[in-house]
Design brief:
By secondary structure, the chain is of the alpha/beta class. It has helices at about 10-20, 45-60, 95-105, 175-180, 180-195; strands at about 1-5, 25-30, 65-75, 80-85, 115-125, 130-145, 160. It has one domain (about 1-195): Maf protein, CATH 3.90.950.10. Helix content is about 30%, strand content about 25%. Strands 1, 2, 3, 4, 5, 6 and 7 form a 7-stranded mixed sheet that branches. The protein starts with a strand and ends with a helix.
Amino acid sequence: MKKMIIATHNRDKFKEMKKALEGLDWEIVAAFDFPGAPAVEEDGKTLEENSLKKAKVLSVFAGLPALSDDTGLFIDALGGQPGIYAARFAGEKCSYDDNVQKVLGLMKGLESGSRRAVFRTIITLYEPEKGVRQVSGEATGVITQAVQGPGGFGYDPIFMPDGHLKTFAEMTLSEKNQISHRGKALQKARQLLAN
């Protein structure tokens, strides 16, 4: 069985990604399984650049093929913010809730028609001998007026995807993975890994 590192230190993201990739002929390990694994500075100007940088750095460090993602939340009413800075929108050491509360605060009083948003994910598969392959996924929806649901992570409690009456935080992991931005990108990554 081949081995691959998921280039993230985020345990919530790792759990989601590992679940979406289960059943493949790959042993999936995380960056946090490797003592001294570097935390990659996400200083790229695009999701593609950040995703590639994380995959490359962790692949070289671990001596394994690597899979990484970079995700942004683009909110129309905020001029596309937080965009690629979604994970650190409320500051460098912020929590998920800090980010959620900042978004809700900035959007206070906006009607539902003005709360459009899109989640975008770029997944990079970096195999030193095969090079770089990138796939993408996106989910459109609205930012809710308040936190809804106990599950998920990040902005899941305030993102309701189009065609659904539940936020990502109110869905099971399997439900979310079928329709989310990361889930769609992971489905494409699965196909690459299966071949």
